[in-house]
Amino acid sequence: PFHQAPITTYFCDA
Amino acid sequence: MLEARLEQANLLKKVVDAIKDLVQDCNFDCNDSGVALQAMDNSHVALVSMMLKAESFSPFRCDRNIALGINLTSLMKVLRCAQNEDILTLKAEDAPDVVNLVFESSESDRLSEYDIKLMDIDQEHLGIPETEYAATITMPSAEFQRICRDLMALSESVAIEATKDGVKFSCSGDIGNGAVTLRSHTNVEKPDLNVEIALSEPVALTFSLKYLVNFCKASGLSSTVKLCLSNEVPLLVEYGLASNSYLRFYLAPKIGD
User: Is the CB of B34 inside 8 Å of chain A's CB atoms?
Assistant: First the structure.
């Protein structure tokens, strides 16, 4: 029942 | 042009060995501050960030920004040709087709030279915000590796809970449950064995053990590892290197539906 969001959800394009 | 001399080829060998299963092709971004690398793994839940500062090399020269697009499997093949104690010099022209690696034995007059063909890699670069983490745990890297490997025998995921009482790594799987709790600990004679927990508020997050075990391949780079956690943001696993250089891994948490 776990969801793992991509790391791009947290770190934006520089 | 780039010319960067590392006292021990072993450092780069260990770094590449630690990340080559997470990322395959990546840019080594060289500028006057050093050599940096940032890459996501294929599934985009983990991020590798390496910084080898100019001070880690002697001498270090890089006149303009150069991105060296390298396949890590190829790089590892060449790095395996170096003896651990060899001196390594990386060289590249300003608009290079190849990167040149020179290994010099400090004990003999042996000199080996290799060129690796470069690739054009279009890589998105992510901005990692400065974060005041709620919990920062510094612990022996071998201990962290052991905990991750042990718990992976039971489960795919680990819950990491940091409170004022300590840090608890726990998991549950088909055969049962497991947990390892560490408290702050100071070993005066062997400070590398210290466990330090700096906490501004309690944190509880769940992560995939497969990735953590993968990060632990960097354990040979540093006797200690730093885990930085805040609720609802990626975990930072940091292996500090000499001269403020570092190898960092970020991992997105697992969130309950």
Answer: no
